[in-house]
Every structure is written in C-alpha cells, then in structure tokens.
Amino acid sequence: MDSVKPGKTYLLRLINAALNDELFFSIANHSVTVVEADASYVKPFVTDTLVIAPGQTTNVLLKTKSPAPDAAFYMLARPYFTGMGTFDNTTVAGILEYENPKNPENAPLFKPSLPAINATNVVANFSNMFKSLATNKFPINVPQKVDKRFFFTIGLGTNPCPKNQTCQGPNGTKFAASMNNISFALPTTALLQSYFFSKNGVFTADFPDSPLHPFNYTGTPPNNTHVINGTTKVEVLPFNASVEVIMQDTSILGAESHPLHLHGYNFYVVGQGFGNFNPKNDPSKFNLVDPVERNTIGVPSGGWVAIRFQADNPGVWLMHCHFDVHLSWGLRMAWIVLDGKLPNQKLPPPPSDLPKC
C-alpha cells in the first residue's frame, strides 16, 4: 500500500519483471502522463491504462487529487494474451491511499476497469502513442537511408517429440519457436569468445535475411509446422551499417504478440501494422521524424513492426523474444557487428583473468 499527499506530482518508475506476460496496468480514478520508455524520453501523453512487455520500462507522472478524496484506489495489473496455450491470468493488486484519511475504516476502495485480456486494439493504440522528443536538446539519429534490410518471421512451431519423452505440443509434438523458421541453439562455447578468438565450428554466418519458404504469414497456417532445430546461425553486419528489420508475426499455432529485445543497441520503431507487411505500400508510412527509441518492442499479434538502428557497437549481440518460455524454445538469433577502422571502433579483448567457457 502506498500513501500519497494531495495535489502533488509523483514519478513512478515501472518495469515488467514477469517471465511470460505482457501486462495491462491501471490505477482506479487516476490518469498518468507517460514521459519515458526504455530510458529514452518521449513526448508526454496521458493515459488511463499502460501496457508493458517483459523487460520494458517506463516512467510516468501521477498527479494526485486535491483535496484528498476520502477513498482508496486499487492499482491493478493483468496479462495481455492472444495465444492458444494456457497462461496465468491472475490480477495482481496494490492500493493507493491518501495520507491522513478522514474515515479510513469506511472509505470506499475503487477498482479500475482493465481491458479484456485479448484487447489487441488497446495495445496497438497505446503503442502508437509513443514518439521521441526529437528536439535540439534531445535529438534522435534514426537512419534515413538503409544499407541492410531484413525480414524476419517471428512465431511458434513444432518438432518431433524425442523418444521416451512426453511432449505437450499438438498431436504429441514438441513446442518450438523460431525466427525465419530457425530455432536457435546456444552453443556450449560462448559466441563472443568464439568470434573474438576465431574458433571454428561454433556458429555459421548464414542466418537467412528473409524466410526460406514464404507463405501467408497471418492467414491459414501451413500444414508443416516443423522448424529447423539445433542450429547456431548468425547474421554479420559491417561496422556502422544502417539496418532495417521487419519483424512479422505468424499465425502458426495462433497469432501472438512477441516482445523482441535487442542486446547492445537501442533502435527506432519506425512503423507497425496488422496483417502481412506490404513492402510496396507500408514503407511510405514509416515515421522517420520522431519515432520512439526503445530496446524492447512487442511484435503485434497478427501484425508486424519495423525497426532501424546504426550498427556502431562491434561485438556479438543476441536478439530474442522476452517471453522466457519462447526463449527456451529457440526464439532468438545473433548479430555479429564487425570492427571499424579506428581503435575505438574495435571489439576490446577480454580481461586476462576472465574464465573461459
């Protein structure tokens, strides 16, 4: 229970620390002003309901009522989910109360109205509210031209159930998850270590730039839902390349929102929409003026999202779904960003006393 003073403005720092749930969050009879997302300022906007994906952060301003109401107010959080599997739909609660209530024993306790668990339209409208400040004091550097373009499908799939195991996928199969139908396997030797010391046989630099077998991504799913399993494929980028990635949700085993997180970088969310991405029409609608800067973004359920970033941080960087269960099923890939020409554009060596994997 949190006690507040009337007529004050409070900064609330929020993070979704759940393993497998995007969350709606609301405070009864109160609105908040969103001012930050993933450690980047945004154009302030007012909302009654927040949507936060696992790993995402946001700062909001809460302006309390004056005079103090003779009441208390629930702060509630509940999952947003559109998939086909089972999940925990528990609503968690805290209570906001004002200091020195006049009649605390009989004060009413108000409850906010949260969106439906599958309210994708609410999530989309909320996500579209985010814009960067894009001012002289807080400029942005969204790539206007693109050197490398990628199209990644994001979704679930299946694999044959291993012998002597019980699997919970459709028709006794084993659940899997993939990007461009590649279910990524973490090697026993660290990727960064293998790359820096040029160790062969740990990974291959042939992650597909686009799906190997295109299909109607958000329409009727294909009959074959098997994914390529147990491979460690990476994508190699020249230093300082400007990169655009379209991430497309698929309907295989049900359309579902996937919060994608990129290590080592922030990126700009330049566009998003429902259905299949249209490479002829959709890029003309991209926001290259004040797109929000983030490190985690939800790929819309039954839709797509477009991001851009400048590959100016050499090293090996994972990009993965922030649902822990999907991560364990292989919904991840890795970028290798090559060194630049200058000394400060090169990957530094590991410390001499660092234990090797």
From TrEMBL:
Pfam families, per database record: Cu-oxidase (PF00394), Cu-oxidase_2 (PF07731)
Molecular function terms, GO-annotated: copper ion binding; oxidoreductase activity
Gene3D superfamilies xref list: Cupredoxins - blue copper proteins
PROSITE patterns xrefs: MULTICOPPER_OXIDASE1, MULTICOPPER_OXIDASE2
A GO term from the CC aspect: extracellular region
Source domain of life: Eukaryota
Keyword Glycoprotein: yes
Family matches, as InterPro entries: Cu-oxidase_2nd, Cu-oxidase_C, Cu-oxidase_fam, Cu_oxidase_CS, Cu_oxidase_Cu_BS, Cupredoxin, CuRO_3_LCC
Keyword Kinase: no
Localization terms from the record: Secreted
Positions of the Plastocyanin-like domain: 3-100, 209-339
Entry keywords, A to Z: Copper, Glycoprotein, Metal-binding, Oxidoreductase, Repeat, Secreted
Primary site of residence: secreted
Swiss-Prot/TrEMBL cofactor(s): Cu cation
Record family assignment: Belongs to the multicopper oxidase family.
Protein name: Laccase
